[in-house]
User: Which sequence fits this backbone?
């Protein structure tokens, strides 16, 4: 995709704050017609700039109050680097990030209780043949902030 222009950036900023905002409302804010906004959004979607739309769910409200970050590294460094695929089926893993440093990946997980975290750690170690280092989140002042586009 060609470079984003100022109008594209304004549209992206508005959609990041409220993904259900109508094309008409966006058009009023950026000075475009509804069809022009729709064309731009469609182009941004087709180019992969906008990857999707989702509801932001409060984890605690749905019974998942414990968030942790689990750093993993292979027990055998010569083994294939396939941990993400081996762990993909574990629903408790919200995100998997490949990282530089001593660990290979950092996983963001959400569970109901410390006992579930303990069980999940055993499942991760067994499924991916990795060692783990865990950090439990005490509070989250903010997350899912809009990107500064």
Assistant:
């Amino acid at each position: 995709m060609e470079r984003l222009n100022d109008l594209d950036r304004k549209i992206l900023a508005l959609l990041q704050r409220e993904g259900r905002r109508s094309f008409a409302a966006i058009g009023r804010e950026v000075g475009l017609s509804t069809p022009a906004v729709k064309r731009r959004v469609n182009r941004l979607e087709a180019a992969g700039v906008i990857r999707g739309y989702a509801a932001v769910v409060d984890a605690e409200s749905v019974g998942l109050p414990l968030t942790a970050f689990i750093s993993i590294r292979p027990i055998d460094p010569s083994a294939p680097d396939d941990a993400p695929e081996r762990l993909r089926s574990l629903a408790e893993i919200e995100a998997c990030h490949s990282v530089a440093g001593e660990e290979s990946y950092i996983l963001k997980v959400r569970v109901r209780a410390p006992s579930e975290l303990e069980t999940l750690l055993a499942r991760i170690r067994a499924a991916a043949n990795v060692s783990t280092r865990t950090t439990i989140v005490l509070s989250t002042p903010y997350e899912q902030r809009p990107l500064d586009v």
